[in-house]
Amino acid sequence: MRGSDFRWAIAFVLPYAAVFFVFVLYPFGYALWMAHRPSLYAELIADRSYLPAVVNTLLFAGLGVNVKMFLALLLSGFFMRRRWWIRASLAVFILPWVIAAAQACVSFHWMLQEQGLVDGLLSALFGIDGPIWFNDRWLALGANIVVYIWKWMPFWTVIFLAARMRIPRDIYDAAEVDGATGTRRFVHVTFPLLANLYLLCTLLSTLWIVGDFTTVYLVSGGGPAGTTDVLATLGFHYAFDSARPALGVAAVLSAFPVLIPIVILLMRRLHTSEAEL
Description:
By secondary structure, the chain is mainly α. The protein has helices at 2-34, 38-46, 50-78, 84-93, 95-98, 101-111, 117-126, 137-165, 169-177, 183-210, 214-219, 231-241, 245-253, 256-276. It folds into two domains: 1-34; 49-276, MetI-like fold. The longest helix is centred in the N-terminal third of the chain and has 33 residues, at 2-34. The radius of gyration is 23 Å and the shape is globular. It starts with a helix and ends with a helix.
């Protein structure tokens, strides 16, 4: 009987193991094999497109994640208010998260084109000619960051809103008796209770954004002249436009020295949270 149970267990596990091998282990292992030569990384550093892409990735991730998380935390407090129009506006607020990323990014790209919607509004409302957004590195990079924040902020706002709703009302009542209201209540009660979740979400979001390809590729396209490329889009250009797939994989994997410590810290914080429960 035990042998039969073991065979059934193997039969159920094998398909999952095969999927894990085909779609996770094999691609990742093959990528490591492609990018194992040290000469590739010397070639990366010598390429004048690489270091600007590293800077862009740090700015895109640093500003995108931190601004998004801070605004999401503040907005979660706004949506906690018990007014019908605020609850109704929450349904509208989460629409950017529902929309597919590709369509949203393409829409922003066309709105920021010369003589597009944004320039048209600037001309109609203020009588000024808008800039050519994708002809300036910093304007184009700023557009990428703004679109990323707009797209993903609703998701994290809902996460923080759900966490706020789990805080017992008695804690707020006790804080109010002690004179902690408004900003003081947020600083001394709400944020300390959400601090661990805030850190975990920030770490997780950082891991996701480093691999974000869609936003930069579809909003600015890496322009002008590749000056807003991040590591994900630069790797794509190496692999497909320059026909150097090994260099493309190396460009993406060069972010590992930053990502691995983040993963370790995330795992430790998760274990700490589990132990506290």
